[in-house]
Amino acid sequence: MSELFASPFFGIALSIAAFAIGVQIQKRTGFVICNPLIIAIVLVAAVLLIFRIPYESYNKGGEIINMFLAPATACLAVSIYSKIEVLKKNWLPILVGCICGSLASMGSVWGLCRLFGLDAAVTASLMPKSVTTPIAVSIAGSHGGMTPITVVAVILTGIMGSIMAPMLIKMFRVKDSMTAGLAIGACSHAVGTSKAVELGETEGAMSGLAIGICGIVTVIFSLFMM
Amino acid sequence: MKIVYQIGIIFAVCWLSQLVEAVIPFAFPASVIGMIILFALLASGILKVSHIREKSDFLLSNMAFFFIPAGVSIINYFDVLKSTALQLVVICLITTVITFGVTAASVRFTLFLMNKVRKGEEK
Predict the structure, then answer these.
(1) What is the reported pLDDT for A58?
(2) In a domain, A75, yes or no
(3) Residues A100 and A33 in one domain
(4) Which of A80, A120, A125, B1 lies in disulfide reach of A149, CB 3.0 to 4.6 Å?
(5) Domain with A100 in it
(6) What are the structural domain ranges in chain B?
(7) Among the three residues A36, A67, A98, which one is the final residue of a domain in this structure?
(8) pLDDT digits over B2-34, tens only?
(9) In chain A, which residues have pLDDT < 70?
(10) Any chain B CB within 8 A of the CB of A199?
(11) Is ipTM over 0.85?
(12) For each of chain B's 123 residues, which pLDDT tens digit applies?
């Protein structure tokens, strides 16, 4: 019986089924908190634990899905390139915003981890949490972090940013769309960007640009800070 | 065949980025190198977006799905998570607010300076 679960088809089919359920729940409820990825992770983990299926068996299929992460990250280049006109026109504020935002994010995570007495591995897992998942996972992985913790922290941050975005815009008295978009993208990557798109076209484009640029900036800073 | 060609182009870029990662002496993630290579190819006009559109749309729009296995491996880290869950939530919350505030302030300040310089030039 257990050999049957060790087929890559099992892991892939289970993941797709769990994700489909997650997407449906999100559609029906419309709550940001019902993130399809979070629901899928919980469902798959529950199936593995309830039926006592070893993680290694599931991961036969998991590895194949994982393989698509690198090409998917590379394709972020396509979305940056499609906004190249906006980037050329506003390169200075975009660059300054992304550099300051990334530094603030990494610095505040580092400080809070010290304050809570968390160890080096947890700190390394959390440092890149404001950037998009593929980049955050690569950074955490290459600096001794635990990548599953990174995945959870990144999604959690994204959901928080997306829920709080309208409130934060009021709180920091942000009046123009470029500033709002960049701030949303810098603090809550793709999940936040989906909210920024709802706020307006400029907000969405700026937020999307911030995902890629903050990603690269964070990789560069991680070489010195981690 | 179109999709096969597109997969070929993107996978070739990814393999090239792993080569670069192995050669450079510091920890720079291959996936980000791939992103930079792909951007350079697009910006220089060697590659056109139409050459990879369908495949990249597929990858970008299904991005979240590809993270399921990475997230599921959290079941191997339950004991770490149990002791740090609360701190983790607090850290995510505080840093999100700080990052938003600092980014907004720095963009606003840059725009303010640019305006000032522009006005200075007009005079």
Answers:
(1) 95
(2) no
(3) no
(4) A125
(5) 82-225
(6) 1-61, 70-123
(7) A67
(8) 889 999 999 999 999 999 999 988 778 888 889
(9) 1-2, 32
(10) no
(11) no
(12) 788 999 999 999 999 999 999 998 877 888 888 989 999 999 999 999 999 999 988 888 887 888 888 888 888 888 878 888 899 999 999 999 999 999 999 999 999 999 888 888 876
Q: What is the mean pLDDT of chain A?
A: 89
* Among B15, B20, B26, B32, the residue to mutate for chain A (most A Cβ within 10 A): B32
Domain boundary among A16, A34, A67: A67
Question: CA-nearest residue of chain B to A191?
Answer: B64
Same domain, A182 and A143: yes
Count of beta carbons in the 10 Å neighbourhood of residue A111: 14
What pTM does this model have?
0.82
Work out how many domains chain A is built from and give that number.
2
* C-alpha–C-alpha distance, residues A26 and B75, integer Å: 23
Read off the amino acid at residue B107: V
Q: Assign residue A155 a region (left: φ > 0; alpha: ψ between -120 and 50; beta: otherwise).
A: alpha
A176 touches chain B (CB under 8 A): yes
B17/A180 CB distance under 8 A:
no
Same domain (yes/no): A55, A96: no
- Any A CB within 8 A of B112 CB: no
Same domain (yes/no): A63, A90: no
Closest listed residue to residue A188, CA positions, set A171, A210, A166: A210
From CA A158, how far away is CA A42, in angstroms rounded?
17
Q: Locate the chain A residue with the closest alpha carbon to B49.
A: A78
